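Q: What changes when 2-(butylsulfanyl)adenosine is included in the input?
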Amino acid sequence: MPSSSTSNNPKREADRLRDLLRRYQHEYHVLARPSVSDQEYDRLYDRLLELEKLHPNLASPDSPTQRVGSDLTQELPEVPHSVPVLSLDKAYAAAELDTWIQKCRKASGRRLSFVAEEKIDGSSIVLYYKKGLLDRAVTRGNGLVGNEVTGNVRTIGAVPLRLARPVTVAVRGEIFLPRPLFDSINASMEIPYANPRNLAAGTLRRVKSSEVAAVPLDIFVYEGYFERAVQTHVAILERLEELGFKCNPRTGLFAEPEDQAGLRERHPRWRIGGFEELEGYLEQSRRERSGLPYDIDGLVVKVNELPAREALGFTGHHPRWALAFKFEAPEAESAVERIEVQVGRTGRITPVARIRPVKLSGSTIANATLHNQDYVSLLELAIGDRVSISKRGDVIPAVERVIEKNELGNSIWKMPDACPSCRTGLVAQGAHLFCPNPDCPDQVRGRLRFFAARDQMDIEGMGPETLETLIRQGLVKDVQDLYTFDPGALLELPGFGEKKVEGIRAGIAASKGRPFRRVLVALGIPELGQKAVELLAESGYHDIDSLLSLADRGDPAPLLEIHGIGERTAQTLLAELSRPDVRRRIQALRKAGLVMAEQPPRAAAGGPMTGQVWCVTGVFERFKPREQAMEEVKKRGGKVSASVTANTTHLLRGENPGAKLDKARELGITIVEEAEFLRLLT
Ligand code: IVH
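A: The predicted holo structure follows.
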């Protein structure tokens, strides 16, 4: 056994290790029958890694070590398919299936048998092998051109990098994420996915394949386009398995008795029977579906004999020799007529699908959000495509998937480069595009609506229509103008009588009394919603100036101390509060008389902690969030500070204290642990 770092014949040793590891990977991922322990596997794997590092000339792209995924950012280039990647015709009732079988028999004029496979609800992929080596993995795309995702697909253990024989072949399959793994992984995603299919598709499109490697994707393959003639679909599946692919063992074959011969032995896990059993098989699958560790949305029934397939041929978008039998009609099916981009009040650009109106559980749906470019790309959506629509959480309509590509040749939709409202060039921030122009008319409109709305400043008489009039008349250009324009000017316009204008005046005046926290939210600063405002106030930020000076210092540390405020929120807040246009707006609103501070909770005069200044670090058993501990300090007459300074008298330290602890030690401040603190409180 190789164990030292030198070797007489490194090439021979590496070859041997590769063969072994390849076998073990196949046993583990494809056959689910590992023959060695994880430790033994790791030992051999590490040894091969070592050899490949010592002798770089030995490295090869099909080595079992080449699945880890690189961190190099890669685009997803568009590449043409060299086999037609067609879709399937579909049926929802057993009777339609019967009719289809009869039609196939008649049109081909032969004795036929049929294979039934589960229709895996995953992400469609075509694997291209050259002389036995994985050359390319390409998404379905529009059927003619797809995106190359080879680096990402290489990370999937069940995809062979090298086949058992050096054949050149294209293979179709479905990449999926097992149900049980979906929930836990989805929880940490920036855009949570509605189902494992979307998460699998999203993962495949990720830029860093190291991130893909962290998601345990799996695959079943179901079609192989071999150079040399094979006579039946069963033979295709057998070949695929011999070559090292993973095929779904839950497969059925329905044939005349003489055509069933020999198959039972070769495929003990298949269901094999006469045609009369097909319907029972459908029912059985429907029943067992919810217990499977992966999602299926139906069965695919295929003519087994390949010469008959050839005779039956294709229509424009599906083969006549296969039929998808779907378990349920999709919630709603429609076509995407246009895709429009909306500009939100923060400048975020959101594509929205305008779909041919369709009824879905009680309402008519004509729009569905598409979130961002990533979502459109993962759906591989183009204008004119037929799509299935669902209502997420029973409210928000979502495009779930493309059911049929458009026949106009439209390619996958792309976001514009410029803002549709003001034509300013868009800038990317995370997964989204933003319009960077604060004076963009759509942003201003959104900002005004948000500011005046019930949950924020709640300005009577200032609904979207009135706001629209004010904007169109040039009376207001931004939120601060609401407090300076002359409502009397409205009297000249149709629809604005004395009474209405008086109401508006009163509404504006009343809004000046809204409490500080509401004003803060109404500013419409990204990341500064109700929850964040509460957290800030509870941590001692009781006025706008304390927040502005925090932004002036540009140090996120004090914000990060607040339980519930993360890195992204802190950074965004500092950046937003530093923007000149935001500053101008705040100053103008202050001048207009809006409330820019609140009374800090009153310290109990003469309480036991009077004169003390407390700071807190770490996490606590009893105080979650830890600001609760600081509330106790205030109740007892003490003061609290967000950071340790020369004025701080006590530091309350919990588990995993931060840098504040060092600072406190440096300054000789009294350090108190939780148990001691609890004692002090009583
Ligand atoms: S056969 C020409 N077999 O369903 C052959 N497709 O709605 C067409 N699918 O794009 C495909 N499981 O992504 C076939 N066992 C299976 C399948 C399957 C899932 C997907 C595939 C295809 C879509 C068509």
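Observations recorded in class: The pocket of 2-(butylsulfanyl)adenosine is lined by residues 86-88, 117, 119-120, 124, 140, 174, 222-223, 300, 319, 322, 324 (CB under 6 Å).
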